[in-house]
Amino acid sequence: MFYKGWYHFFYQYNPNAAVWGDIVWGHAVSKDLIHWLHLPLAMVADQWYDKNGVWTGSATFLPDGNIVMLYTGSTEEAVQVQNLAYPADPSDPLLIHWVKYPGNPVLVPPPGINKKDFRDPTTAWLTSEGKWRITIGSKINKTGISLVYDTKDFINYEKLDGVLHAVPGTGMWECVDFFPVSKAQENGLDTSVNGPGVKHVVKVSLDDDRHDYYAIGTYHDKNGTWIPDQPGIDVGIGLRYDYGVYYAAKTFYDQNKNRRVLWGWIGESDSEAADMQKGWASVQSIPRTILFDNKTGTHLLQWPVEEIESLRLKINEFNGVRIQTGSVIPLDVGPATQLDVVAEFKIDKEALEKTTGSNETFSCSTSGGAAERGALGPFGLLVLADDSLSEQTPVYFYIAKGSDGNLKTFFCNDQSRSSAASDVNKQIYGSFVPVLKGENLSLRILVDHSIIESFAQGGRTVITSRVYPTKAIYGAARVFLFNNATDASVTATLKIWQMNSAFIRPYPNDEKFLKDLKQM
Fold first, then answer.
1. 315 forms bridges with which residues in the sheet?
2. Beta-carbon neighbour count of residue 62 at 10 Å?
3. In the 3-class helix/strand/coil scheme, how is 136-192 assigned residue by residue?
4. What angle do CA 262, 264, 268 make, to 5 degrees?
5. Distance set, CA 98 to CA 43, 46, 389, 452 (Å)
6. Is the pLDDT of residue 104 over 80?
7. Which of 133, 148, 354, 465 could potentially form a cystine with 224 if both were Cys, beta carbons 3.0 to 4.6 Å apart?
8. Torsion angles phi and psi, residue 31, rounded to 5
9. Which residues contact 221 (CB under 8 A, 6 or more apart)?
10. What pLDDT was estimated at residue 517?
11. Confidence grade of residue 335 (pLDDT, cut at 50, 70, 90)
């Protein structure tokens, strides 16, 4: 959230080990979402109602500018309950101290809901009757559901009949998010906005498969229900925020810049033993803005926040580079461990028309990766590669032509040769990406040593890879163009920036520094 000039980030943190366990709330602040200052823990597990963990929660701004925080606590008996907290000193822009409401918990699992299936309250939004409304994830048998509650004071709650939404077979819904998007404007909306020109997004994290899914639909204020525009791509069975390592994502409305910003957790994909050895695990993604894609009407557009561009250093531009079939072209950009890559590809039109279609179905995850050649792909970039290409992570497009002549484009990340290490995940990630008539294929890639965040077609399809190169590190990391198609040459135009490092500073135990900081 943005409060008195500072962005605040609260996160699940185990101060005692690099694995899940003693969960408390870490807290950091930033002026620009890029450079961060750690603050003392915001809330710890010190009450009977959160003794087994201070879990996910959400902040809500009240009309008077004050903040209330609802969060899930796991009690001494491991019952999931909802609790209320608020700043001890609302005049403190750093919000260092938090107070738990003495009457907690304010909500307990309702009849018919398992004590361990009631968690993660959303930011509240105002109803047409002037009440506050929240939704909380749960399940009944294998049906994922989102319960709805109304409140006037965040202490007393009325449960609505029915649910916001339910999808059979999706299992437990965690970290539910619910927010409006504008069909016409290129800016975010406050969570309470409703009316003409507004669609609503339901996003859930599926505990069963550890992925984040979303769908776009229509919200009915009167009875607190939401209906997907396309039931075939309903929540949990259709579109994902990210087709790689990305979970428990949460948005907030940034009133400072009139945008909705998405945070996501990038977990590790090496062994737990390796995490224990290095003493830490997991990072946060670069924050992303999120908008409705009015061209498809089905997708959201995710894009790195504009502030990331402040880290750009030297630029290298490559115009009209022709990549013949079966070729790899090195791009001389210097060390390639911290990059911002913007690229556009044009595939040979004649080859597109001449290629014979087939009924064969393509999938990034079950294909042979970037090494498996097709008529119209794969082609793209090899990042975090060493000179010999013994380590490489291809980020690429693959075009499949059906027997009806229609083209279907896929966007993939291939981790199979990302590391010489044996104890790391080497899956191939990806999905279909809509490419509309007249659009060239475009992508953006943020490379940061062991993390690759890739955005295709303006952010319609996004993939985050967590890789662990052993050779393609520091000055030995390179970037290449490649085209492994058999029938079509490709022309690429690129801008590649070297990127500076963001500063993440520890908490300063210096009273004068803190006093000056609060006045910034």
1. 497
2. 12
3. EEEEECCEEEEEEEEECCCCCEEECCCCCEEECCCCCEEEEEEEEEECCCCCCCCCC
4. 165
5. 7, 13, 51, 35
6. yes
7. 148
8. -90, -20
9. 127, 128, 194
10. 75
11. very high
User: How many helices (H) does the chain have, and how many strands (E)?
Assistant: 3, 36
Distance CA 239, CA 432 (A): 10
CA–CA dist 139, 267 (Å, integer) = 24
CA gap 489, 373 in Å, rounded: 13
**Main-chain dihedrals φ then ψ at residue 130, nearest 5 degrees:** 85, 10
| CA count, 13 A, side-chain hemisphere, 218 | 9
CB 495 within 8 A of CB 313: no
Q: What is the pLDDT of residues 181-239, one digit of tens each?
A: 999 999 999 999 999 999 999 999 999 999 999 999 999 999 999 999 999 999 999 99
Dihedral angle over CA of 62, 173, 166, 233, nearest 10: 100
Question: CA distances (Å), 331 to each of 393, 479, 497, in order?
Answer: 15, 6, 12
Q: Give CA–CA dist 212/234, Å, rounded.
A: 12
What are residue 263's phi and psi, to 5 degrees?
Answer: -110, 145
Burial 397-414 (b: 16+ CB within 10 A, else e): bbbbbeeeeeeebbbbbb
Residues whose CB falls within 8 Å of the CB of residue 386, separated by 6 or more in sequence, listed in order: 392, 469, 471, 472, 476, 477, 478
Give the integer Cα–Cα distance in Å for 438 and 398: 18
CB atoms inside a 10 Å sphere around CB 44: 16
> In sequence order, what are the residues at sequence separation of 6 or more whose Cβ sits closer than 8 angstroms to the Cβ of residue 81?
49, 72, 73, 75, 104, 105, 107, 108, 109, 118
> Using 50, 70 and 90 to split pLDDT, how confident is the model at 323?
very high
Question: Is it the case that residue 359 has pLDDT exceeding 90?
Answer: no
Q: Which of 461, 379, 456, 464 is nearest to 415 (CA)?
A: 464
The residue count of the chain comes to 520
Indicate if the alpha-carbon torsion angle 39, 40, 41, 43 is positive or negative.
negative
Instruction: Give mean pLDDT, residues 432-454.
Output: 97
Residue 516 has pLDDT above 90, yes or no: no
pLDDT score of 89: 97
Please say if the pLDDT value at position 358 is more than 90.
no
Q: For residue 325, give both structure tokens.
A: 């079939």
Determine the pLDDT at residue 360.
81
